[in-house]
Amino acid sequence: MTGNRLTLRSALFFAFITLAAGLFLGWRLGASGPAVQAAPESARKILYWYDPMKPDAHFERPGKSPFMDMELLPRYADETSTADTGLGLAPAFTQNLGVRLGTVEKGRLDRATEVSGSVAFDEHAISVVQARTGGIVERAYPLAVGDRVRAGAALVDVRVPEWFAAQSEYLALRDEPRLAAAARERLLQLGMSTAQVDALERRGKPDAIVTFHAPRAGMLSEFDLRQGMTVMPGQTLARINGIGRVWIEAQAPETEMSRLAIGGKATVRLTALPGQALEGKIAALIPELKRETRTLRVRVELSNPDGILKPGMLAFIRLRDVNDEPASLLVPTEAVLATGKHHIIIAASPDGRFVPVEVAPVGEAGDRTEIRAGDLQEGDRIVVSGQFMIDSEASLRGVLARMRADEGDGPPVAAHVHANAHTGIGVVESTADDEIVLAHDPIPELSWPAMTMPFALSKPGLAKGFAPGQKVRFHFAETKEGPVIERLEALPPGGAS
Fold first, then answer.
1. Can you tell me the distance from the alpha carbon of 138 to that of 334, in angstroms, rounded to the nearest whole number?
2. Under CATH, which number does the domain 126-241 receive?
3. What is the H or E stretch that residue 356 is in?
4. Cα–Cα distance between 475 and 453 in angstroms, integer?
5. Rounded to an integer, what distance in angstroms lies between the CA atom of residue 227 and that of residue 395?
6. I need a labelling partner for 197 at 20 to 30 A (CA). Which of 68, 213, 228, 455 fits?
7. Is residue 280 within 8 Å of residue 301, measured between CB atoms?
8. pTM surpassing 0.70?
């Protein structure tokens, strides 16, 4: 009787264990979202066993993982299709992972070169006032170098005795056309302008004093005249720099020469005008390279109607090339995962699946990257953030494993993108200089159950001061050698804080 009771209890206990194991396996399969319906357990063909923390390592028989204290899991034949069709995740699970999507666009990268320079006068807008004949300064108007003058402003009055006699002769011969023409020509040869001769005819009397005016508006850069000074023929009386337009002189690296062209756009910011961006254009690329610095002199032209730009101001210039290339595919830079030999983008299909696509980046500018290879098209939706969480889930199913099989020492996607992507809670079992053993709680984003396992430390002595039995929060990254803890935080004995 007693033997029968024990047999009945054993049968009930075995049935309960079998039911619990079946419920747990069903939950695991449902969380991973397989693309095909699972066959009955007895009818499913097992291809190999694997450790969920190192899915690339395959084993012929079940048992304990050689990497840590946990059982190997089976890989069934009807699950292999997910490597080609991608990973399916429930919408709520995707939201919890923090997955953010972006769109593949078509356009041109705004490639730019950042250089510094300074404001200078436009040397094409310089006027020089010179004396055409000798004389004496009767009056120098109250001006000095650096003063701004308007066009037509009087600069200096000069007495020219030689002009007085010639003017008197011309006025006396006005009634004799042939003689008057000769006298007029003499006045012009002495240095009088046609306008001055015409004014003499209207006035009807000689005047030996000539007034020199500013031929353009701008700043006096040369003016050194005083009353009573003698003026020689050809002497410079004044030099005026126009300020309606200025130059920005900058030095661009030799490596950027092929991307710069006359007419290219330039955005200028000045320390004297914070918050303002001025638009100009590349006016000249000086055909001489500085050997010492291996730089090319670039001249940017900038309109200055209000005269707020002063020569000598420090400027920061963003030079943009004239891009005539056709539009190409552009993606957010953070969507591109560098995994060693490959660059991968995780595409989101309309049916909610995530499929890795290998691409070839061509260039990067700002927050966008140009790609010219891969199975992506304009308008496709791609994962911009949360890739490392999808990668962790996909690693259990082998979706990305085949892309890493030939990478040698290439780092995992998750470790490359987010070095401190994972966090767990555990209790210290033992510590060493470069290792710590933790009994940690489940880590859902990696589908890790609760277990006791060793972790390598990112630097020796990181676990110093932590004692066995102490509760900690640990931040770790997955590497090819295994999980590596980068930060440890002590927690109160009662729970996480």
1. 74
2. 2.40.50.100
3. strand 353-359
4. 15
5. 92
6. 228
7. yes
8. no
Tokens of 27: 């939950």
pLDDT of residue 150: 93
And the tokens for 129?
Answer: 């006032």
| Cα–Cα distance measured from residue 362 to residue 364, given in angstroms and rounded to the nearest whole number | 7
Show Cβ contacts of residue 88 under 8 Å, excluding neighbours closer than 6 positions: 33, 34, 35, 82, 351, 352, 353, 354
Residue identified by tokens 């290219």 is 264
Element (H, E) at 488: strand 482-490
Tokens describing residue 470: 């102490």
Q: Which CATH number fits domain 97-110+326-414: 3.30.530.20, 2.40.420.20, 3.30.420.10, 3.40.50.150?
A: 2.40.420.20
CA pair distance 71, 62, nearest whole angstrom: 8
Whole-number Å distance between alpha carbons of 53 and 483: 9
Structure token digits, residue 103: 């769109």
Q: pLDDT per residue over 380-438, tens digit each?
A: 888 887 655 555 545 544 444 444 444 444 444 333 334 345 788 999 999 988 899 99
End-to-end CA distance of the chain: 55
Where does CATH 2.40.50.100 sit in the chain? Answer: 126-241
Q: Any idea which fold 250-320 has? A: Elongation Factor Tu (Ef-tu); domain 3 (2.40.30)
Q: Is the pLDDT confidence value at 139 over 90?
A: yes
Boundaries of CATH 2.40.30.170 in the chain? 250-320
Contact partners, residue 419, CB within 8 Å, separation at least 6: 477, 486
What residues have CB less than 8 Å from 413, skipping those under 6 apart?
Answer: 337, 339, 344, 387, 388, 391, 400, 404
Name the CATH code of domain 419-490 (choices 2.60.40.2080, 1.25.40.390, 2.40.50.320, 3.40.50.9100): 2.40.50.320
Three-state SS for 489?
strand
| Helix and strand totals (H; E) in the chain | 9, 32
Q: How far, in Å, CA of 48 to CA of 60, rounded?
A: 5
Q: Concatenate the DSSP letters of all residues of 198-244 into one string.
A: HHHHHH-S---EEEEE-SSSEEEEE----TT-EE-TT-EEEEEE--S
